[in-house]
């Protein structure tokens, strides 16, 4: 009889421990899976609400929404020097630098937003330029895409930074700052820089307008050399002539206007076609403006001087906006400065205002604030009071120069004001013994005169005390007053 083969017996205690380990491993796998699902759900719901983004959770600032539509700022409504401008109180942004290289950093400075509001910054091709192609992807500069987010601090001011994409089809990009859940929006434009011999510069870092020494070699004898900053086409920034050895010794030149960051000075021989370049790091311009005075009334002139712009460039002056048609242009001198410019303020502007100065070539921008003060006229009559029948005329000061003033009277509480006289003040805003009004016979107590400036919209009031007559007074009523044509405004 064959003996049966038996498997080795497993001790009872070890078998139980093995089965327990298997069950424990399965539980760990299930718990780990549940934890992973919970983390994804929390990331998708909680993190975006806190303004935190992570790969795979959505809300990444580099993602391009397909339905982004940036709002348009309100249209300007006030005529200043023949140009329509905003009247103040509207959001505004400036860019530094305004002329930027692909991949370069841009700082957005904004004001006029609500304190504590979240501001989303978008970048897209300007619709008002040749070459803009709406519908292209965000990278080439078509549809607007979000590039930064910031929170407005005290006084509604914010600062945000973003990097210009490395590829761009349109040379002008529109930057939009848009407050979440609000109609407050501001726009500005950034320009994208286009971009045998030896050339050597005496320095490798500087800003537009700085003087360097240039040395070149290896060109044809006596040929014309065209010097360019950051480009090789268009009109040269400078023209030199090579000597009989095809060289130019140490020659002082000014750093030209080009995009901030790493660039090159390029020298091209007009006859030989030979070219040479020298690397250079262009620093930002930091322009400054001085206004005088910082508070004016309508019809008064505010003057300004500036420095820190590129030499010989036009500085475009705008009111309460970084873009659009300028109200005037001023040319800088060889040091990038200007002075003695000014503009007269119109009646429609009131309160706090901002004036923006932008270099036409460098795109360097700076804003400076000032205040439009209200007119506070004063008036009095030829007498502080009198009996019915008293003839009253008027004295006035501190109205707007040469404006028409209309006089209304209210003879009883709740009565409708009645126009009774009009006159024009002089160049100092004053008038003496003008207009005429007779206190009616049935008037008692107090008569209130209101003198309203038609240009300044300022009003002065005078209370005339009417004494009791002790009985009926027979005085012809005042004839209805009609304002003459020359005093209507």
From the structure above, extract its key features.
Immunoglobulin-like, 8% helix, mainly beta, 5-stranded mixed β-sheet, single chain, 489 residues, 34 strands, disordered N terminus
The major beta sheet can be summarized as: 5 strands, mixed
Beta-strand portion reads 35-45%
Gap between N and C termini, in Å? Answer: 136 Å
Adjacency order of strands in the biggest sheet: 4-10-9-6-7
Instruction: Provide the helix percentage.
Output: under 10%
Number of helices: 1
CATH class of the largest domain: Mainly Beta
Question: What is the typical, i.e. mean, pLDDT?
Answer: 84
Give me the CATH fold name of the largest domain. Immunoglobulin-like
So, the CATH homologous superfamily of the largest domain?
Macroglobulin (MG2) domain
Give the radius of gyration: 37 Å
CATH architecture of the largest domain: Sandwich
SS-derived structural category: mainly beta
Uncertain segments: 1-10, 40-66, 130-141
Give the helices and strands, then pairings.
Layout: H1 12-49, E1 78-80, E2 83-85, E3 92-96, E4 99-100, E5 105-111, E6 118-125, E7 145-151, E8 158-163, E9 172-179, E10 185-192, E11 198-201, E12 205-206, E13 211-217, E14 224-229, E15 238-241, E16 248-254, E17 261-269, E18 275-282, E19 288-292, E20 295-297, E21 301-307, E22 314-319, E23 328-331, E24 338-344, E25 351-359, E26 365-373, E27 378-381, E28 385-386, E29 391-397, E30 404-410, E31 418-424, E32 431-438, E33 445-453, E34 459-466
Parallel strand pairs: 4-10, 12-18, 20-26, 28-34
Antiparallel strand pairs: 1-2, 3-5, 5-8, 6-7, 6-9, 9-10, 11-13, 13-16, 14-15, 14-17, 17-18, 19-21, 21-24, 22-23, 22-25, 25-26, 27-29, 29-32, 30-31, 30-33, 33-34
């Amino acid at each position: 009889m064959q003996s049966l083969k038996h498997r080795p017996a497993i001790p009872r205690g070890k078998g139980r421990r093995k089965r327990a380990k298997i069950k424990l491993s399965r539980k760990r796998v299930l718990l780990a899976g549940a934890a992973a699902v919970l983390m994804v759900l929390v990331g998708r719901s909680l993190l975006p609400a806190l303004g935190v983004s992570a790969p795979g959770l959505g809300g990444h600032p580099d993602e391009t929404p397909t339905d982004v539509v940036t709002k348009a700022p309100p249209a300007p409504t006030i005529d200043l020097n023949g140009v329509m401008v905003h009247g103040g109180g509207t959001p505004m942004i400036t860019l530094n630098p305004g002329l930027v290289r692909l991949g370069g950093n841009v700082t957005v400075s904004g004001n006029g937003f609500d304190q504590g509001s979240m501001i989303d910054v978008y970048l897209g091709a300007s619709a008002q330029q040749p070459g803009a192609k709406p519908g292209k992807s965000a990278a080439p500069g078509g549809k607007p895409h979000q590039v930064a987010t910031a929170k407005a601090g005290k006084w509604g001011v914010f600062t945000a930074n973003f990097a210009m994409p490395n590829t761009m089809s349109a040379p002008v990009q529109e930057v939009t700052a848009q407050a979440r859940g609000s109609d407050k929006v501001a726009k500005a434009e950034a320009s994208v820089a286009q971009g045998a011999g030896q050339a050597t510069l005496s320095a490798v870092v500087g800003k537009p307008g700085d003087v360097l020494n240039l040395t070149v070699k290896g060109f044809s004898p006596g040929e014309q050399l065209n010097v360019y900053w950051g480009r090789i086409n268009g009109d040269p920034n400078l023209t030199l002539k090579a000597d009989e050895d095809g060289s130019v010794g140490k020659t002082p030149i000014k750093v030209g206007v080009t995009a901030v960051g790493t660039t090159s000075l390029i020298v091209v021989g007009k006859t030989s076609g030979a070219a040479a370049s020298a690397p250079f790091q262009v620093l930002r311009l930091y322009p400054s403006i001085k206004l005088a005075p910082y508070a004016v009334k309508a019809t008064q002139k505010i003057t300004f001087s500036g420095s820190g712009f590129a030499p010989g460039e036009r500085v475009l002056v705008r009111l309460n906006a970084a873009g659009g048609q300028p109200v005037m242009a001023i040319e800088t001198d060889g040091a990038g400065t200007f002075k003695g410019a000014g503009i007269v303020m119109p009646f429609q502007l009131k309160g706090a205002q901002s004036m923006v100065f932008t270099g036409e070539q460098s795109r360097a921008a700076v804003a400076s604030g000032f205040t439009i003060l209200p007119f506070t006229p004063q008036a009095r009559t030829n007498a502080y009071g009198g009996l019915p029948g008293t003839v009253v005329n008027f004295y006035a000061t501190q109205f707007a120069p040469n404006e028409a003033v209309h006089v209304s009277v209210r003879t009883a509480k709740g009565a409708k004001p009645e126009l009774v006289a009009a006159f024009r003040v002089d160049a100092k805003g004053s008038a003496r013994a003008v207009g005429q009004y007779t206190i009616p016979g049935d008037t008692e107590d107090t008569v209130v005169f209101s003198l309203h400036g038609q240009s300044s919209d300022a009003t002065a009031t005078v209370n005339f005390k009417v004494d009791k007559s002790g009985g009926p007074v027979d005085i012809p009523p005042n004839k209805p007053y009609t304002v003459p044509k020359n005093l209507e405004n």
